[in-house]
Amino acid sequence: MKIKILLADDHQIVLKGISFFLNIQPDFELVGEAHNGQEAVEKAAELKPDIVLMDLKMPVMDGIEASALIAERHPEIKVLVLTSFSDRSHVVPALQAGAVGYMLKDVEPDQLAEAIRSAYKGNIQLHPDISNALLSQLAPQQTEPDGERSREALESLTPREKEVLQLLSKGMSNKEIAQTLVVAEKTVKTHVSSILAKLRLTDRTQAALFAVNMLNPKP
User: Fold this and answer.
1) How far is CA 98 from the centre of its chain?
2) Closest-CA residue to 35 (of 13, 3, 2)
3) Hey, CA dihedral for 93, 97, 99, 100, is it positive or negative?
4) How confident is the model at residue 117, as a pLDDT?
5) Alpha-carbon distance 11 to 211, whole Å?
6) HSE on the CB side for 8, CA within 13 Å?
7) Of 82, 93, 89, 165, the residue nearest 126 (C-alpha)
8) Whole-prediction pTM
9) What is the DSSP string of the chain?
10) What's the burial of 26, exposed, middle or buried (CB within 10 Å: 0-12/13-18/19+)?
11) I need a labelling partner for 40 at 20 to 30 A (CA). Which of 46, 74, 100, 177 fits?
12) Mean pLDDT along residues 26-31
C-alpha cells in the first residue's frame, strides 16, 4: 500500500520539484496537485489522499483555512504543512486548524519523506526550528533546563489523562480520542480541560507539544 499524497502549492517550480521527489519514492503515490486552498479542499474530497502537503500562502483560499476544512470534513486525511514561514503567527493557527505537522521548505528531502511517513501514522511532525521555537514559549515550568517541573506536572496526571495526552500528541481530535478509548466525547473534553489546568497550558496545541517533548523524548 502506497501513501497517497495531494500536493498543494501555487508555485510551479516548487510543484515540479516536490512532485519529482515524491514520484521517485517507492512507497509514495502523488495522486494530484492543487494550486490554491479551495482547489486543495475540492481535490481532497475527490481524490481521498492519505496526506495533503499544504502550503500556507496561496490565492483564493489560504492553507490554514483549507486545512481546517479538510480536517473537519475528512478527519482521516492528514494535513502536513510545507511552507517557508516559521513564525508563531503562522505555526500555531495551522496546528490549531488541524494540521498534524509543520515543515519548512528548507528541510532535507529525506527528512521530508520521513515526516510524511510519520504523519501518515498519525504522529505530530515539526521541523526542528519550529519545535524549539514553540517549546520555548510554553509556560515557564515546562522550560526548566532540568525538566524537573515538567516531570512533576506529568506525574500529576491520572493514568487516563496520560492516555488522552498521548493521543493528543498524535494529532487526534476529541471525537477520535473518544472512539479510541470507547468513552463519550464529553468525557474526553473534561480530561483535556483537566490536563491543561494541571500542566498550566492554554490550549491543546501546547499540550500536544508538551507530550511530544515529555512522552517521546529525543535520545
Assistant:
1) 7
2) 13
3) positive
4) 93
5) 35
6) 33
7) 82
8) 0.69
9) -PEEEEEE-S-HHHHHHHHHHHHTSTTEEEEEEESSHHHHHHHHHHH--SEEEE-SS-SSS-HHHHHHHHHHH-TTSEEEEEES--SHHHHHHHHHTT-SEEEETTS-HHHHHHHHHHHHTT--EE-HHHHHHHHTTS-GGGG-TT-HHHHHHHHTS-HHHHHHHHHHTTT--HHHHHHHHTS-HHHHHHHHHHHHHHHT-SSHHHHHHHHHHHHS---
10) exposed
11) 177
12) 96
At 63, list the grid cell: 492553507
The type of residue at 111 is Q
Taking the CB of residue 129, how many other CB atoms lie within 10 A of it?
13
Task: Compute the distance between CA of residue 177 and CA of residue 170 in angstroms, rounded to an integer.
Answer: 10
